[in-house]
Protein backbone atom coordinates (compact mmCIF):
# COMPACT_ATOMS: atom_id res chain seq x y z
CA UNK A 1 0.00 0.00 0.00
CA UNK A 2 1.52 3.30 -1.08
CA UNK A 3 0.51 6.53 0.57
CA UNK A 4 1.57 10.02 -0.33
CA UNK A 5 4.53 11.56 1.41
CA UNK A 6 4.04 13.05 4.87
CA UNK A 7 6.37 14.77 7.29
CA UNK A 8 7.12 13.35 10.74
CA UNK A 9 4.37 14.56 13.10
CA UNK A 10 4.08 11.93 15.82
CA UNK A 11 3.67 13.16 19.39
CA UNK A 12 3.62 9.70 20.97
CA UNK A 13 4.51 6.07 20.31
CA UNK A 14 0.81 5.32 20.00
CA UNK A 15 0.45 7.79 17.14
CA UNK A 16 3.40 6.21 15.37
CA UNK A 17 1.99 2.71 15.92
CA UNK A 18 -1.36 3.82 14.49
CA UNK A 19 0.29 5.04 11.30
CA UNK A 20 2.33 1.83 11.01
CA UNK A 21 -0.90 -0.19 11.32
CA UNK A 22 -2.65 2.03 8.76
CA UNK A 23 0.16 1.36 6.27
CA UNK A 24 0.13 -2.37 7.15
CA UNK A 25 3.86 -2.43 7.86
CA UNK A 26 5.59 -5.07 9.98
CA UNK A 27 7.41 -2.59 12.23
CA UNK A 28 7.48 -3.17 15.98
CA UNK A 29 8.53 -1.10 18.98
CA UNK A 30 10.14 -2.42 22.15
CA UNK A 31 9.80 -0.77 25.55
CA UNK A 32 13.12 -2.34 26.60
CA UNK A 33 16.35 -1.00 25.11
CA UNK A 34 18.68 -3.49 26.82
CA UNK A 35 19.45 -5.31 23.56
CA UNK A 36 21.23 -2.17 22.33
CA UNK A 37 23.53 -2.26 25.37
CA UNK A 38 24.75 -5.82 24.89
CA UNK A 39 28.41 -6.33 23.92
CA UNK A 40 29.37 -8.21 20.78
CA UNK A 41 32.61 -9.88 19.77
CA UNK A 42 33.91 -10.16 16.21
CA UNK A 43 37.07 -12.22 16.14
CA UNK A 44 39.28 -10.72 18.89
CA UNK A 45 37.63 -7.30 18.78
CA UNK A 46 35.18 -6.44 21.57
CA UNK A 47 32.34 -4.12 20.59
CA UNK A 48 30.92 -2.55 23.73
CA UNK A 49 27.34 -2.06 22.51
CA UNK A 50 25.12 -2.41 19.43
CA UNK A 51 25.36 1.18 18.19
CA UNK A 52 27.43 2.46 15.29
CA UNK A 53 28.07 5.82 13.62
CA UNK A 54 27.80 5.49 9.87
CA UNK A 55 30.46 7.03 7.58
CA UNK A 56 29.38 10.67 7.31
CA UNK A 57 31.46 12.64 4.84
CA UNK A 58 32.20 16.23 5.85
CA UNK A 59 33.77 17.40 2.56
CA UNK A 60 36.18 19.45 4.64
CA UNK A 61 39.62 17.86 4.22
CA UNK A 62 42.59 19.85 3.05
CA UNK A 63 43.35 19.70 -0.65
CA UNK A 64 46.06 17.11 0.00
CA UNK A 65 43.50 14.86 1.72
CA UNK A 66 44.60 15.56 5.29
CA UNK A 67 42.05 16.32 8.04
CA UNK A 68 41.19 19.97 8.59
CA UNK A 69 40.04 21.74 11.72
CA UNK A 70 36.42 20.75 11.01
CA UNK A 71 37.35 17.13 10.31
CA UNK A 72 39.10 16.86 13.66
CA UNK A 73 36.17 18.54 15.40
CA UNK A 74 33.75 16.00 13.91
CA UNK A 75 35.66 13.00 15.25
CA UNK A 76 36.22 14.66 18.60
CA UNK A 77 32.41 14.93 18.82
CA UNK A 78 31.86 11.40 17.56
CA UNK A 79 34.19 10.17 20.30
CA UNK A 80 31.67 11.50 22.82
CA UNK A 81 28.90 9.40 21.31
CA UNK A 82 29.50 6.29 23.40
CA UNK A 83 28.89 3.97 20.44
CA UNK A 84 30.63 0.64 19.91
CA UNK A 85 31.79 1.37 16.34
CA UNK A 86 32.82 4.62 14.67
CA UNK A 87 32.78 4.00 10.93
CA UNK A 88 35.04 6.69 9.49
CA UNK A 89 33.91 8.52 6.40
CA UNK A 90 34.65 7.81 2.75
CA UNK A 91 38.37 8.18 2.08
CA UNK A 92 39.72 8.28 -1.45
CA UNK A 93 42.37 5.78 -2.53
CA UNK A 94 43.55 8.00 -5.41
CA UNK A 95 43.29 11.69 -6.37
CA UNK A 96 41.41 10.81 -9.57
CA UNK A 97 38.76 8.95 -7.57
CA UNK A 98 37.87 11.72 -5.12
CA UNK A 99 34.18 12.64 -4.96
CA UNK A 100 35.13 16.27 -4.31
CA UNK A 101 38.37 18.28 -3.97
CA UNK A 102 37.99 18.22 -0.17
CA UNK A 103 37.38 14.52 0.36
CA UNK A 104 39.71 12.77 2.79
CA UNK A 105 42.51 10.87 1.06
CA UNK A 106 45.10 8.70 2.78
CA UNK A 107 48.58 8.31 1.36
CA UNK A 108 52.17 7.88 2.45
CA UNK A 109 52.78 11.62 2.57
CA UNK A 110 49.90 12.53 4.89
CA UNK A 111 49.50 9.38 7.01
CA UNK A 112 50.78 11.03 10.20
CA UNK A 113 48.41 13.98 9.81
CA UNK A 114 45.58 11.57 8.97
CA UNK A 115 46.18 9.70 12.22
CA UNK A 116 45.01 12.74 14.19
CA UNK A 117 41.34 11.89 13.60
CA UNK A 118 41.88 8.60 15.42
CA UNK A 119 43.50 10.45 18.30
CA UNK A 120 40.71 13.05 18.48
CA UNK A 121 38.08 10.37 18.95
CA UNK A 122 40.21 8.45 21.44
CA UNK A 123 40.75 11.53 23.63
CA UNK A 124 36.98 12.03 23.83
CA UNK A 125 36.43 8.36 24.59
CA UNK A 126 38.93 8.50 27.44
CA UNK A 127 37.10 11.50 28.84
CA UNK A 128 33.79 9.67 28.59
CA UNK A 129 35.19 6.51 30.19
CA UNK A 130 36.45 8.46 33.19
CA UNK A 131 32.90 9.64 33.80
CA UNK A 132 31.25 6.24 33.40
CA UNK A 133 32.95 2.87 33.06
CA UNK A 134 30.28 1.48 30.74
CA UNK A 135 31.86 3.49 27.94
CA UNK A 136 34.76 1.75 26.25
CA UNK A 137 37.06 2.52 23.36
CA UNK A 138 35.19 2.14 20.07
CA UNK A 139 36.17 -0.03 17.13
CA UNK A 140 37.30 2.26 14.33
CA UNK A 141 36.73 1.30 10.69
CA UNK A 142 38.00 3.41 7.78
CA UNK A 143 35.91 3.46 4.61
CA UNK A 144 38.00 3.26 1.42
CA UNK A 145 36.48 4.33 -1.87
CA UNK A 146 36.90 5.14 -5.52
CA UNK A 147 34.02 7.41 -6.55
CA UNK A 148 33.83 6.09 -10.10
CA UNK A 149 30.87 7.67 -11.87
CA UNK A 150 30.80 10.40 -9.22
CA UNK A 151 34.48 11.34 -9.30
CA UNK A 152 35.03 15.06 -9.02
CA UNK A 153 38.67 15.74 -8.13
CA UNK A 154 38.25 19.29 -9.42
CA UNK A 155 35.69 19.13 -12.19
CA UNK A 156 33.25 16.28 -12.71
CA UNK A 157 35.07 13.41 -14.36
CA UNK A 158 32.86 10.30 -14.30
CA UNK A 159 34.77 7.02 -14.50
CA UNK A 160 32.12 4.49 -15.40
CA UNK A 161 31.85 0.74 -15.64
CA UNK A 162 29.27 1.26 -18.42
CA UNK A 163 27.00 3.93 -19.88
CA UNK A 164 23.54 4.65 -18.50
CA UNK A 165 22.18 8.05 -19.46
CA UNK A 166 19.60 8.50 -16.64
CA UNK A 167 22.40 8.35 -14.05
CA UNK A 168 24.36 10.96 -15.98
CA UNK A 169 21.32 13.19 -16.33
CA UNK A 170 20.53 13.01 -12.61
CA UNK A 171 24.01 14.33 -11.81
CA UNK A 172 24.06 16.88 -14.65
CA UNK A 173 26.71 15.02 -16.63
CA UNK A 174 26.80 14.14 -20.29
CA UNK A 175 27.82 10.89 -21.91
CA UNK A 176 30.86 12.63 -23.39
CA UNK A 177 32.18 13.53 -19.91
CA UNK A 178 34.78 11.23 -18.38
CA UNK A 179 35.26 7.70 -19.65
CA UNK A 180 34.50 4.02 -19.28
CA UNK A 181 37.35 2.41 -17.37
CA UNK A 182 39.29 -0.33 -19.16
CA UNK A 183 40.11 -3.66 -17.54
CA UNK A 184 43.75 -2.60 -17.19
CA UNK A 185 42.70 0.61 -15.41
CA UNK A 186 40.60 -1.48 -13.03
CA UNK A 187 43.69 -3.53 -12.20
CA UNK A 188 45.55 -0.33 -11.28
CA UNK A 189 42.69 0.70 -9.00
CA UNK A 190 42.90 -2.69 -7.31
CA UNK A 191 46.52 -2.01 -6.34
CA UNK A 192 45.49 1.37 -4.90
CA UNK A 193 42.91 -0.27 -2.61
CA UNK A 194 45.62 -2.64 -1.39
CA UNK A 195 48.15 0.13 -0.71
CA UNK A 196 45.64 2.30 1.18
CA UNK A 197 44.56 -0.66 3.33
CA UNK A 198 48.21 -1.14 4.29
CA UNK A 199 48.42 2.49 5.44
CA UNK A 200 45.12 2.32 7.36
CA UNK A 201 46.37 -0.67 9.34
CA UNK A 202 49.73 0.97 9.91
CA UNK A 203 48.28 4.14 11.48
CA UNK A 204 45.97 2.33 13.89
CA UNK A 205 42.53 1.64 12.44
CA UNK A 206 40.84 -1.59 13.56
CA UNK A 207 39.70 -2.39 10.05
CA UNK A 208 38.80 -1.07 6.63
CA UNK A 209 35.55 -0.92 4.74
CA UNK A 210 35.90 -1.69 1.04
CA UNK A 211 33.00 0.52 -0.04
CA UNK A 212 30.47 -1.25 -2.25
CA UNK A 213 27.49 1.08 -2.06
CA UNK A 214 25.60 4.12 -3.37
CA UNK A 215 26.71 3.49 -6.95
CA UNK A 216 30.35 4.35 -6.49
CA UNK A 217 32.76 2.30 -8.57
CA UNK A 218 32.77 -1.05 -6.76
CA UNK A 219 29.00 -1.00 -6.38
CA UNK A 220 28.53 -0.13 -10.05
CA UNK A 221 30.73 -3.05 -11.06
CA UNK A 222 28.12 -5.47 -9.68
CA UNK A 223 25.47 -4.21 -12.12
CA UNK A 224 27.71 -4.19 -15.20
CA UNK A 225 25.29 -6.34 -17.22
CA UNK A 226 25.83 -4.14 -20.28
CA UNK A 227 29.62 -3.83 -20.02
CA UNK A 228 31.11 -5.23 -23.23
CA UNK A 229 34.54 -6.49 -24.32
CA UNK A 230 35.54 -7.01 -20.70
CA UNK A 231 36.24 -9.88 -18.34
CA UNK A 232 34.45 -7.90 -15.64
CA UNK A 233 30.93 -7.57 -17.00
CA UNK A 234 28.00 -9.29 -18.66
CA UNK A 235 25.07 -11.38 -17.56
CA UNK A 236 27.07 -13.82 -15.44
CA UNK A 237 27.28 -13.23 -11.68
CA UNK A 238 30.78 -14.68 -11.79
CA UNK A 239 32.15 -12.17 -14.29
CA UNK A 240 30.41 -9.17 -12.72
CA UNK A 241 31.81 -9.98 -9.26
CA UNK A 242 35.22 -11.20 -10.40
CA UNK A 243 37.04 -7.88 -10.06
CA UNK A 244 35.55 -7.02 -6.66
CA UNK A 245 36.21 -10.48 -5.25
CA UNK A 246 39.80 -10.39 -6.49
CA UNK A 247 40.36 -7.08 -4.66
CA UNK A 248 38.97 -8.33 -1.38
CA UNK A 249 40.70 -11.70 -1.64
CA UNK A 250 44.06 -9.96 -2.02
CA UNK A 251 43.40 -7.52 0.82
CA UNK A 252 42.24 -10.29 3.17
CA UNK A 253 45.26 -12.45 2.35
CA UNK A 254 47.67 -9.61 3.11
CA UNK A 255 46.08 -7.76 6.02
CA UNK A 256 43.19 -9.56 7.71
CA UNK A 257 43.82 -10.77 11.26
CA UNK A 258 41.91 -11.45 14.45
CA UNK A 259 42.35 -7.79 15.37
CA UNK A 260 42.06 -6.15 11.93
CA UNK A 261 38.78 -6.52 10.06
CA UNK A 262 38.16 -6.34 6.34
CA UNK A 263 34.50 -5.42 6.01
CA UNK A 264 32.10 -3.57 3.72
CA UNK A 265 29.28 -1.06 3.61
CA UNK A 266 27.35 -2.71 0.82
CA UNK A 267 24.30 -1.98 -1.29
CA UNK A 268 21.88 -4.88 -1.27
CA UNK A 269 19.37 -3.01 -3.48
CA UNK A 270 20.19 -0.20 -5.90
CA UNK A 271 16.59 0.80 -6.64
CA UNK A 272 17.58 1.18 -10.31
CA UNK A 273 15.84 -0.96 -12.94
CA UNK A 274 17.49 -3.95 -14.63
CA UNK A 275 19.84 -4.16 -16.50
CA UNK A 276 21.44 -1.25 -14.66
CA UNK A 277 20.61 -2.13 -11.06
CA UNK A 278 21.96 -4.60 -8.49
CA UNK A 279 19.65 -6.49 -6.15
CA UNK A 280 16.61 -6.04 -8.42
CA UNK A 281 14.44 -8.41 -10.44
CA UNK A 282 16.07 -9.27 -13.76
CA UNK A 283 13.21 -8.15 -15.95
CA UNK A 284 12.53 -5.10 -18.08
CA UNK A 285 9.72 -3.20 -16.39
CA UNK A 286 8.31 0.31 -16.09
CA UNK A 287 7.68 -0.23 -12.39
CA UNK A 288 9.58 2.17 -10.14
CA UNK A 289 11.16 1.51 -7.80
CA UNK A 290 11.92 -1.95 -9.17
CA UNK A 291 11.10 -5.12 -7.25
CA UNK A 292 14.00 -6.22 -5.02
CA UNK A 293 15.71 -9.55 -5.65
CA UNK A 294 18.32 -10.43 -3.02
CA UNK A 295 19.58 -13.66 -4.58
CA UNK A 296 22.86 -12.17 -5.82
CA UNK A 297 23.52 -9.92 -2.79
CA UNK A 298 23.06 -12.93 -0.49
CA UNK A 299 25.39 -15.02 -2.64
CA UNK A 300 28.02 -12.27 -2.67
CA UNK A 301 27.91 -11.84 1.12
CA UNK A 302 28.36 -15.60 1.53
CA UNK A 303 31.22 -15.65 -1.00
CA UNK A 304 32.99 -12.78 0.76
CA UNK A 305 32.49 -14.48 4.12
CA UNK A 306 34.20 -17.58 2.74
CA UNK A 307 37.16 -15.37 1.84
CA UNK A 308 37.28 -13.89 5.35
CA UNK A 309 34.81 -10.99 5.65
CA UNK A 310 32.61 -11.13 8.77
CA UNK A 311 31.01 -7.68 9.08
CA UNK A 312 28.63 -6.06 6.59
CA UNK A 313 27.04 -2.62 6.90
CA UNK A 314 23.95 -2.79 4.68
CA UNK A 315 22.42 0.07 2.74
CA UNK A 316 20.22 0.81 -0.29
CA UNK A 317 19.88 3.07 -3.27
CA UNK A 318 21.78 5.85 -5.00
CA UNK A 319 21.49 9.27 -3.30
CA UNK A 320 22.47 11.02 -6.55
CA UNK A 321 19.58 9.35 -8.40
CA UNK A 322 16.80 8.94 -5.82
CA UNK A 323 17.84 9.97 -2.34
CA UNK A 324 14.53 8.89 -0.75
CA UNK A 325 15.53 5.23 -1.11
CA UNK A 326 18.90 5.83 0.58
CA UNK A 327 17.54 8.05 3.35
CA UNK A 328 13.82 8.64 4.00
CA UNK A 329 13.25 12.34 4.68
CA UNK A 330 10.77 15.07 5.49
CA UNK A 331 12.18 17.51 2.95
CA UNK A 332 14.21 16.71 -0.18
CA UNK A 333 17.20 18.73 -1.30
CA UNK A 334 16.26 21.90 -3.14
CA UNK A 335 14.91 21.12 -6.59
CA UNK A 336 14.24 17.41 -5.96
CA UNK A 337 10.82 15.78 -5.98
CA UNK A 338 8.98 14.17 -3.11
CA UNK A 339 8.79 10.37 -3.35
CA UNK A 340 5.56 8.56 -4.14
CA UNK A 341 5.51 6.85 -0.76
CA UNK A 342 5.28 7.61 2.93
CA UNK A 343 8.72 7.81 4.61
CA UNK A 344 7.69 4.90 6.86
CA UNK A 345 7.51 2.74 3.75
CA UNK A 346 11.10 3.69 3.01
CA UNK A 347 12.11 2.85 6.58
CA UNK A 348 10.34 -0.49 6.28
CA UNK A 349 12.20 -1.26 3.04
CA UNK A 350 15.46 -1.02 5.00
CA UNK A 351 14.20 -3.12 7.89
CA UNK A 352 12.58 -5.79 5.72
CA UNK A 353 15.48 -6.27 3.29
CA UNK A 354 17.96 -6.36 6.19
CA UNK A 355 15.87 -9.06 7.90
CA UNK A 356 15.93 -11.13 4.72
CA UNK A 357 19.71 -10.86 4.44
CA UNK A 358 20.29 -11.70 8.12
CA UNK A 359 18.04 -14.76 7.98
CA UNK A 360 19.81 -16.06 4.84
CA UNK A 361 23.47 -15.91 5.87
CA UNK A 362 25.55 -17.82 8.45
CA UNK A 363 25.26 -16.58 12.04
CA UNK A 364 28.99 -15.79 12.11
CA UNK A 365 28.26 -12.91 9.73
CA UNK A 366 27.38 -9.75 11.65
CA UNK A 367 25.03 -7.24 10.05
CA UNK A 368 24.70 -3.48 10.66
CA UNK A 369 21.30 -1.98 9.87
CA UNK A 370 20.56 1.42 8.36
CA UNK A 371 17.61 3.75 7.83
CA UNK A 372 16.58 4.72 11.38
CA UNK A 373 17.18 8.48 11.58
CA UNK A 374 13.76 9.49 10.19
CA UNK A 375 12.16 7.83 13.23
CA UNK A 376 13.69 10.45 15.56
CA UNK A 377 13.24 9.72 19.28
CA UNK A 378 11.31 6.51 18.56
CA UNK A 379 14.14 4.95 16.58
CA UNK A 380 15.84 3.22 19.56
CA UNK A 381 12.62 1.37 20.35
CA UNK A 382 12.34 -0.01 16.83
CA UNK A 383 16.08 -0.67 16.70
CA UNK A 384 16.01 -2.54 20.03
CA UNK A 385 13.20 -4.77 18.78
CA UNK A 386 15.12 -5.69 15.62
CA UNK A 387 18.28 -6.54 17.60
CA UNK A 388 16.35 -8.50 20.25
CA UNK A 389 14.72 -10.63 17.53
CA UNK A 390 18.02 -11.40 15.82
CA UNK A 391 16.99 -9.50 12.69
CA UNK A 392 20.16 -7.40 12.79
CA UNK A 393 23.23 -7.27 15.03
CA UNK A 394 24.15 -3.58 15.21
CA UNK A 395 22.24 -0.36 14.50
CA UNK A 396 23.92 2.44 12.56
CA UNK A 397 23.01 6.12 12.64
CA UNK A 398 24.24 8.64 10.07
CA UNK A 399 22.38 11.95 9.93
CA UNK A 400 21.51 11.53 13.61
CA UNK A 401 25.23 11.56 14.43
CA UNK A 402 25.66 14.87 12.58
CA UNK A 403 22.77 16.42 14.49
CA UNK A 404 23.18 14.74 17.86
CA UNK A 405 26.65 13.23 18.25
CA UNK A 406 25.92 12.23 21.85
CA UNK A 407 22.97 10.04 20.81
CA UNK A 408 24.73 6.91 22.10
CA UNK A 409 25.12 8.36 25.58
CA UNK A 410 21.43 9.25 25.65
CA UNK A 411 20.33 5.76 24.61
CA UNK A 412 22.73 3.89 26.90
CA UNK A 413 22.33 6.05 30.01
CA UNK A 414 18.82 7.50 29.73
CA UNK A 415 17.02 4.91 27.57
CA UNK A 416 15.83 7.72 25.34
CA UNK A 417 16.93 10.10 22.61
CA UNK A 418 16.57 13.81 23.28
CA UNK A 419 13.83 14.91 20.83
CA UNK A 420 15.18 18.45 20.82
CA UNK A 421 18.61 17.44 19.55
CA UNK A 422 17.89 14.83 16.88
CA UNK A 423 17.95 14.94 13.10
CA UNK A 424 14.78 16.32 11.50
CA UNK A 425 15.62 14.87 8.04
CA UNK A 426 15.45 18.26 6.34
CA UNK A 427 18.20 17.30 3.82
CA UNK A 428 20.16 20.49 4.46
CA UNK A 429 23.33 18.49 5.18
CA UNK A 430 22.99 16.94 1.73
CA UNK A 431 22.21 20.31 0.22
CA UNK A 432 25.50 21.63 1.61
CA UNK A 433 27.29 18.87 -0.32
CA UNK A 434 25.40 19.83 -3.47
CA UNK A 435 26.59 23.40 -2.95
CA UNK A 436 30.20 22.06 -2.93
CA UNK A 437 30.50 23.17 0.68
CA UNK A 438 31.64 21.55 3.89
CA UNK A 439 28.74 19.68 5.46
CA UNK A 440 27.19 19.11 8.86
CA UNK A 441 23.92 19.78 10.64
CA UNK A 442 22.58 23.23 9.76
CA UNK A 443 19.80 22.99 12.37
CA UNK A 444 21.41 21.47 15.49
CA UNK A 445 24.95 22.72 14.85
CA UNK A 446 23.91 26.03 13.36
CA UNK A 447 26.68 28.18 14.80
CA UNK A 448 29.18 26.13 12.79
CA UNK A 449 27.26 25.23 9.62
CA UNK A 450 24.49 27.80 9.04
CA UNK A 451 27.00 30.37 7.69
CA UNK A 452 28.16 27.80 5.12
CA UNK A 453 24.54 27.09 4.16
CA UNK A 454 23.97 30.78 3.61
CA UNK A 455 27.13 30.93 1.54
CA UNK A 456 28.74 33.50 3.82
CA UNK A 457 31.69 31.44 4.98
CA UNK A 458 34.44 29.33 3.50
CA UNK A 459 36.53 26.82 5.39
CA UNK A 460 40.12 27.88 5.98
CA UNK A 461 42.07 24.65 6.08
UniProtKB/TrEMBL annotation:
Superkingdom of origin organism: Archaea
This protein's UniProt keywords: Flavoprotein, Oxidoreductase
Listed Gene3D superfamilies: Aldolase class I (3.20.20.70)
Ranges for domain NADH:flavin oxidoreductase/NADH oxidase N-terminal: 38-271
Gene Ontology molecular function: FMN binding; oxidoreductase activity
Keyword Flavoprotein carried by entry: yes
Keyword Oxidoreductase annotated: yes
PANTHER family noted in UniProt: BINDING OXIDOREDUCTASE, PUTATIVE (AFU_ORTHOLOGUE AFUA_2G08260)-RELATED
Name of protein: Flavin oxidoreductase/NADH oxidase
Organism of this sequence: Promethearchaeum syntrophicum
Amino acid sequence: MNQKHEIFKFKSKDQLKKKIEELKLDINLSTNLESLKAPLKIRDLNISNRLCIHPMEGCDAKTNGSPSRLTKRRYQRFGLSGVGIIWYESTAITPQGRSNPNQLMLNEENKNAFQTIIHEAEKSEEELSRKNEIFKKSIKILQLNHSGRYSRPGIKFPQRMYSYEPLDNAYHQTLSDGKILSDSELEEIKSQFIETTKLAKEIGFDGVDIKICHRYLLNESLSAFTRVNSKYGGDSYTTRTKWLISIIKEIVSQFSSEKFLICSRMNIYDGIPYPYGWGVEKQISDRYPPVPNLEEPIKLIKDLHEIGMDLFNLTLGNPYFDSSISRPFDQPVQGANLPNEHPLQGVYRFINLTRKIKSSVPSEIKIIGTGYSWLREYSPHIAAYEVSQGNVDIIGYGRMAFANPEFGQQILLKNALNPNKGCITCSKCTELMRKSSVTGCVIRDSETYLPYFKGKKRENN
